[in-house]
Amino acid sequence: MKKIWIVGSLGHMGQALIRLLDMMEYELYETDKDELDITDEHAVSLFMHRNRPDVVINCAGYHPSAGAAQSETDMAYKVNAVGARNLAQSAESIQAKLIQISTDDVFSSASDTPYNEFDDVNPVGLFAKSKYAGEKFVIQLMTRYVIIRSSWIYGIGKDFLNEVLEAAADSQVSTMELLNNDRAVPTSAAELARVVKFFIDNDHYGIYHAVCGGGSCTRLEFAKEILRLAGKEDRLTVTVKDGTPEKYSVLDNMMLRLTGIEEPSGWRETLASYMKETGGLE
User: Fold this and answer.
1) Nearest to 79 by CA among 104, 105, 100
2) 3-class secondary structure, 173
């Protein structure tokens, strides 16, 4: 039975993976920061060598606040970069495969054409830079790795979709102002988990983009689609803050396509399915 270690098990991806893999023929190890701190090199090595997983999936991530203080800057690099390094070097020592969940934020706003895996990155901002540093550690230290970049992942827990629905449900809130109107692709954690499962079961390695199909959208368009599906269009007005800079980070699933791997379904249909499943759809 293949052993799978899910790191960051309480987040969107961790929960989606557990739901998908739990009833299958895998032995799952699930840890979050309270069970194991991936910034502790010794603890990671000890867990890795005691349990000897075949595949490690790193879903962990630290999102610093805007204008982060030095302590948050250190924490971002500690979790997103050093944590990934600790997992990579430890996984390599037992020849385990590492699947690293990364982000569209490694690309900047310099393009209006979807980024594929062969485009040069240009991370802007602390989160993007620290996640890219984690990618580099994985590439430098491992022979059997998969880096999966995705965008606007939603699922069980706190996220943008949840924020919009909560605002719509609050009788004291009539307007929601978005602080950014970036363009990317909303991606269901459940759909992304299906892609991850392929890499668990098959020997393909390298960097892959994995986002839902059906084109991209802005944050404003995403919010309006959430409200439309929830039947709350008349309940909440969504606007964009004046003077807000835009960022384009739409990903192209080129490597999935070239390799013949099934891509995630369209973002509108997966959003509707998720909201129906969770009771957010009217």
Assistant:
1) 100
2) coil
- Compute, in degrees rounded to 10, the torsion defined by CA atoms 233, 237, 241, 246: 10
Residues 6 or more apart in contact with residue 250 via CB below 8 angstroms: 104, 114, 115, 151, 183, 184, 185, 211, 216
Q: Model confidence over 223-271: pLDDT tens digits?
A: 999 999 999 999 999 999 887 777 899 999 999 999 999 999 999 999 9
- Grouping H, G, I as helix, E, B as strand and the rest as coil, residue 186 is coil
- Look at residue 280 in the predicted model and tell me its pLDDT: 64
* End-to-end CA gap in the chain: 42
Distance CA 244, CA 190 (A): 31
3-state secondary structure of 94: coil
State the Cα–Cα distance between residues 58 and 8, nearest whole angstrom.
7
Q: What is the pLDDT of residue 64?
A: 83
Residue 242 confidence (pLDDT): 80
Which pair of structure tokens corresponds to residue 3? 């052993």
* Block residue for tokens 């080129």: 254
Would you state the pLDDT for residue 72? 82
Asked if residues 97 and 144 have their Cβ atoms less than 8 Å apart, the reply is yes
The C-alpha atoms of residue 30 and residue 22 are separated, in whole angstroms, by 11
Residues 6+ apart with CB under 8 A from 116: 209, 251, 252, 254, 255
- Helices within the chain (DSSP H only): 12-21, 41-51, 70-77, 83-93, 126-141, 160-169, 189-201, 219-230, 254-259, 267-278
Q: Residue 204 CB: number of other CB atoms within 10 A? A: 14
CB atoms within 10 A of CB 188: 26
AA letter at 83: G
From residue 1, alpha-carbon distances to 9, 54, 77 in Å are 20, 10, 34
256 alpha-carbon distance from chain centroid: 17
